[in-house]
Amino acid sequence: MGVVPAGTAATAVPATTATAVPATTATAVPATTATAVPASTGRPYVLLSCATSIDGYIDDATQERLLLSNAEDMERIDAVRAGCDAILVGAGTIRADDPRLVVRSARLRAARQAAGLPPSPVKVTMTARGLLDPQARFFTVGDAEKVVYCAGPAVDRTTELLSGLATVVDAGDPLDPVRVLADLAGRGVRRLMVEGGASVHAQFLTAGLADELHLVVAPFFVGDRRAPRFVGDGAFPWHPGRRARLAEVRQIGDVVLMRYALSERCADGVPG
């Protein structure tokens, strides 16, 4: 697959990914799937998902991945994924965690297929330098379409590296999340789940491009300043003078989910 300028590649993703889940199938797929995004917004509905320790860390400083969630919450996350058209992670998350980013539940995969959708959402990543391993599970696991948004100077190298594995899209220099969302909208993506890492979350939050945040807090501390936190410094639209709206609090085993409404498009009472 070759390079496609952002905003001009609507035919690169199979037409099935552009098909919203019909209202009649809302009971087969999690309720979030039936939430339509008004076309007038010009971009997908953006849902950020993150798990942290009590002291706000998303990992520790060791080489092994820190497990912050639990089995019950992982089932919830799987259902949220199943209700989205695309899942986005940064290149750093691919390098550090090697995620598969597929819907795990056979029941949820079958429900998506019954609604005319592929078993798992489109996989999306953003990379400034194109430092991606073609053998990463992002590219090798599952049949979902893969789209890589790349900074202009690294486009040619990344296209050659990922030939036949993904569609590479020039997203500006520096990477512009507004261009990314506009291109995804052109591909029929109406609901996007952003799973990190910290820099990607910060980009969407500081740009005011997030509609909803699912923040899960694990019952322990990391206590190591070398470890990555949820987000770093930045000018965020939500501050003491403009508080985010807490839409839901839910205990899930030994973790707590807090669902924040970050825009008027996040409806109260719609579980994630």
Structural description of this entry:
The protein is α/β, with parallel strands linked by helices and 272 residues long. The protein has 7 helices and 10 strands. Strands 1-6-5-4-3-7-2-8-10-9 form a 10-stranded mixed beta sheet. The radius of gyration is 18 Å and the shape is globular. About 12% of the residues have low confidence.
Q: Strands of the largest sheet, in order across it?
A: 1-6-5-4-3-7-2-8-10-9
Contiguous runs where pLDDT drops below 50 for at least 5 residues: 7-40
Mean pLDDT: 87
Distance between the termini: 34 Å
Global geometry? globular
Tally the beta strands.
10
Rg (C-alpha, Å): 18 Å
Order of helices and strands: EEHEHHEHEHEHEHEEE
Given the helix and strand composition, which structural class is it?
A: alpha/beta
**Portion of residues in helices?**
10-25%
How is the biggest beta sheet arranged? 10 strands, mixed
Strand content: 15-25%
